Amino acid sequence: MARGLRSVTNVEALSGGRLALLAIAIFATFAIFLSRLFQLQIAEGDDLRRQSERNSIRTVRIDAPRGELLDREGRVIATTRPAFQLEVIPSELRRPATTFEALGRLLQRDSGELRARVGQPRGRARFQPISLAGDMSFEELARVETHRFALPGVVTEARPRREYPDGDLAGHVVGALGEIRADQLEAPRFEGYQQGDVIGQSGIEAVAEQWLRGVAGGRNVIVNVAGREVDRLDEVEPVPGDAVVLSLDLDLQREAVAAFQLSPAEAKAEVAEPGITEKLGALVALDPRTGEILALVSRPSYDPSAFAGGGIDPKVWRELTHGEWKPLQDRAISGQFPPGSTYKAFVAAAALQEGIITPQTRFFCPGSFAYGNRVYRCWRKEGHGSVDLHTALVRSCDVYFYEVGKRLGVDRIAHFAKMFGLGRTTGIDLPEEKPGLIPTSDWKKQRFGEPWMGGETISISIGQGYDLVTPLQLAVSYGAIATGRAMQPHLLKRVEKPDGTVVSETQPKVLSEVGVKPEFLAAVQSGLRGVVEEPGGTGGRARVPGVSVAGKTGTAQVIRLDANKNVPEEKIPLRYRDHAWFVSWAPVEAPEIVVAVLAEHGGHGGAAAAPIAQRVLAKYFEKKKLAVPATETAGVDGGSITAQVHPAAATPAPKAAAAAPAPKAAAAPQPAAGAADEPEAGDGAD
Amino acid sequence: MEQIERRVWRDFDWPLFCLMATLVALGLGNLVSATHAGSVGLLSSEVERQLVALGIGVVGLVLALVVDLRRLERLAIPIYLATCALVASTLVLAPMHRGSRSWLMYGPIRLQPSEFTKVGLVLAMSWLFQRWPPTALTRLRDLWRPGLVMALPVGLIVAQRDMGVAVLTLLVGATYLPFVRIPWRAWALVAGTGIATVTGMWFFVLADYQRSRVLDFLEPGRDPLASGYQVIQSRIAIGSGGVFGKGWMEGTQTQLRFLPTQHTDFIFSVIAEEWGFVGSAVVLGLYLTLLLWGIQVARRSRDPFGAYLALGVVGIFFWPAAINVAMVIGLFPVIGVALPLFSYGGSAMIASLIGLGFLLNISMRRFRS
User: Fold this and answer.
1) Least CB-CB distance to B179: which of A15, A52, A222?
2) Residue A238: its pLDDT value, please?
3) What is the pLDDT of residues A485-535, one digit of tens each?
4) Are the beta carbons of A339 and A581 closer than 8 angstroms?
5) ipTM of predicted assembly, 2 dp
6) Among candidates A275, A287, A248, A337, which has minimal Cα distance to A599?
């Protein structure tokens, strides 16, 4: 077949010239390849080799366990434990539908939601682990681990996590953790921090950040494309953070929080309102000799655990920030309220020192006091008759202090109040402290452009009007009445390395010496002792058997609707009830502890606030009595009254705490209107 | 006959055989390393499958080697049609896999028929040129016969949506084009009109989404991010190999699986990373030698059918090798083209060995007229 073609020679079949050209073309192609390889492997070789090392060698940071927070007796307030995190690496997932369904069953969560959280990452992101559960229980961990071989792409990772065993017991003291913000990253204070770092954003967690943080370690590891560690090159162990010992006494803190709980009867009748599960308010207990804070309570509180992972569940966050009673606000240091009758002690000291009165000076109280064209009433309509200073303090006679205040004038009252530590921040080692307000005539001119009116001084003399103090300030200033000097309050007692070496220790610091002669101070002290110990004193409910207690009740008025004017206190809606104060110290002659209580919307100081202070004082002296024979007190938990903790009602946020406005009550003192009615319960009752 | 056979054996092309055996051995050794990560034991399942394919391929090679060229010539068209039929069957039988229907699956057997069409096409072209020699084709319209022979398998592969293989098959056919006697002017006209039409359409007629659709059609499963990642990782792998490489089984990019599809399309990166410039140069040199040897076989063949067939086999190896290496070293966009004898893939291995069998056959019988 095909005869003609059989004779075709190979030269005719394929031109040799063109074959040669083809060979040259092929040769040229390979020459180009070789030169390209030369460029990549020899010219750029070193650079690309480094890139390949960067690719596979990764420095993994090992977070340092955050230092512990301890109370003065070494009991744990905050600690760090390993928490197991569940992560999914999308690129390693095999049958996603089955895997997510299994995970959903194992974690008892909705598998669709888990799947949605992982989504459909593309490119490089497919190799990055995505966290699905931040803190698995041991049961969950065990369940996942048992099935892990059947769940490719699912990994569990142990990371340190903050834990607060007592929940919301001291939420405001402890503060909250949170991811470092962009503006913080730029601050010199946070040099060496990286984005995503979890830091203390409020409370002691923020204040002691530098000690608590520790030094992160790291290791160089070889990872595969999935980021999974296949080999370890070297490792530097992290240095755990230092332990911070607070001056807080957990026994007192627990007792105080317990005292804010509603009794069954109260829960039914008086204070109960939707959303309120306990009494509102604040308590500060401190040692007036050193300024050490022994208990610092603000109710409602929050559980810092909600922030422990660096973020917070949006639902919890909404509850914390949108409620009427603002659990994030630390009322003890940033709640500003009129001091009410507790202020009379300062007015008395000022008047004595200024020579306006002597302890024997008497004024007649007919039940009211006329000044200008107004009449200012004493809280006791029938009047107190002729009273000296002692009686005026014991019975909290308003007219006596109207007389004294009128003679002193606003600026001299302010001068002394400030000497005791009011009207400016105390400098406690917590953020967000508020300064309160002690008005002067200059202040009013600057603030309102109006001269000071004499009638305003009358209100000021009994702690109403413009006066604002925080519970902390009141505690510090009553410490000054008791000892003659105002000490700067502080919570940080000591910082210790994990091995016990002391890194730093807070030395007591004097805020101001009170420029009042000791005998005058003694006169005030005696009156305040009478408040608690004498018949007819307004603070009788603060008595502690075997211990001398001095104190003063007070009522901070809340603006109220006319409709409520003549309604009994218990029948008014909670938010319109007055705040009750009680400030006290003990023993009177050798002061060891000051307790200031604000019962927010609690009504009368003697009835609402004094019993709370009493429990803390009693607890303190009960512990002391037990401690004397025993050598070590750490195990002694005498009263064994455990604070009731409401983890559900807990959770703060650093930023919000800062932004939270003062409570409604603080903003609503009614300046001088209708003068101060000062019904102090306990009068006559004891 | 005896004597002829003995002479034929004496003329056996041992250098070509050794070249081929070396490349196959290097390819296997490299595949062991490339698939080592994540596998249990030394030999991964991929290597095992590749060894099975090698065994079948050797049988194919022997058949291709011993078959008389006259008989092969008679069988050319039936083989061609059979391979086309096999591809056509995928359109009905093969499941959609990664955007194309290229794979026939039956139990453990997976066959990619389009790999064999190249061999069928080259046989058919050789048969055709034997009757109507390329030197006799002087006008564009003379190309209708070879055009038709190419259109059938290429059309079928396009229908499979396997664009990479379709382009390759087209290029293998085009290997013969330099040997037809059609004036350059005519080619220039064709090329000019073609380029003008396509670019004009691309820029002025097609809308964005249509262009995107064309790209998606040309390359199913197109993922710019993924291919960019491949290119970067491949570049790092090659460059980090340096002069002498990181050593067999020591390539970090390879063993830690930073290289995507490292055992198929990016197999050359593994060579470059683990054996460095020296190793890749040796492999490229061996490849080049194989191709030039093939051209020499074509040139020396006294038998036109053998000459055409040898040239076709050169095309079967040159185009995928050139495109694959160019793509891996970043001189060409990433399209799914494997490197013959090195990439994992049984059908390709078998087809390649059959092609080499033809080459050995032609070379061996070069003195017979």
Assistant:
1) A15
2) 85
3) 999 999 999 999 888 889 899 999 999 999 999 999 999 999 999 999 998
4) yes
5) 0.89
6) A337
> Are A41 and B223 inside 8 Å of each other by CB?
no
Those residues whose C-beta lies under 8 Å from the C-beta of residue B183, and which sit 6 or more positions away, are B138
Higher pLDDT, A146 or A171: A171
DSSP state of A223: E
Which residues of chain B make contact with A49, given a CB cutoff of 8 A? 239-240, 242
Distance in angstroms (rounded) separating the CA atoms of residues A523 and A319? 49
| Distance (Å, whole) CA B176 – CA A18 | 10
To which residue do tokens 């020459």 refer?
A31
Which of A305, A341, A459, A461 is the catalytic position?
A: A341
Residue that wins the pLDDT comparison between A664 and B318: B318
- Conformational region of residue B109, where left means phi above 0, alpha means psi within -120 to 50, and beta covers everything else: beta
Q: Which residue has the tokens 């490792």?
A: A235
DSSP A606: I
Looking at residue A324, the DSSP 8-state letter turns out to be T
**Residue pLDDT, tens place only, A604-657:** 777 889 999 999 999 999 998 887 654 444 444 443 333 333 433 334 433 443
Assign A124 a pLDDT band (cuts: 50, 70, 90). low
Q: What is the pLDDT of residues A305-328, one digit of tens each?
A: 888 876 677 777 887 877 777 888
- How far is residue A200's CA from residue A203's CA, in Å, rounded to a whole number? 8
Most confident range (mean pLDDT) of A92-96, A243-247, B342-346 is: A243-247
Residue with tokens 């048992």: A146
Q: How far is residue A208's CA from residue A214's CA, in Å, rounded to a whole number? A: 11
Instruction: Give bridge partners of residue A443 from the DSSP assignment.
Output: none
Phi, psi (rounded to 5 degrees) for A290: -120, -20
Nearest CA in chain A to B317: A26
- Sign, CA dihedral B38-B40-B41-B46, equals negative
Residue of A nearest to B322 (CA): A29
How far from chain centre, in Å, is Cα A487?
22
Is A341 assigned a catalytic role? yes
CA atoms of A200 and B343, how far apart (whole Å): 56
- From first CA to last CA, the distance across chain A in angstroms is 137
Query: Distance from B238 to chain A by nearest Cα, in Å?
Result: 6
Which residue matches tokens 């063949």?
Answer: B301
Point out the residues of chain B with pLDDT beneath 70: 1-8, 37-42, 97-101, 107, 205-206, 209-210, 212-229, 256-261, 367-369
Helical H segments across A327-464, by residue range: 331-334, 344-353, 389-395, 398-408, 410-419, 441-448, 454-461
Q: Pick the closest to residue A520 from A366, A410, A358, A299 (CA basis).
A: A358
Range name among A535-544, A655-664, B72-81 with the lowest pLDDT average: A655-664
β-strand partners of B175: none
How many whole angstroms separate alpha carbon A428 and alpha carbon A506? 12
Rounded to whole angstroms, the Cα distance separating A148 from A130 reads: 16
Residue A383 near residue A547, CB atoms below 8 Å:
no
Per-residue DSSP letter, B262: T
Q: Is B67 in a helix, a strand, or coil?
A: coil
DSSP classification of residue A121: -
Does residue B69 come out as left (phi exceeding 0), alpha (psi in the -120 to 50 range) or beta? alpha
With beta carbons under 8 A apart, name residues in chain A contacting B268: none
What is the spatial distance between Cα A611 and Cα A339, in angstroms, rounded to a whole number? Answer: 18
Provide the total of helices (H) and of strands (E) in chain A, helices listed first. Answer: 26, 23
Quote the CA–CA distance of A144 and A106 in Å, as a whole number. 6
Q: Based on the number of CB atoms within 10 Å of its own CB, is A159 exposed (0-12), middle (13-18) or buried (19 or more)?
A: middle
What pLDDT score was predicted for residue A423? 93
Cβ atoms < 10 Å from Cβ of B29: 15
Report the Cα A612 to chain-centroid distance in Å.
21
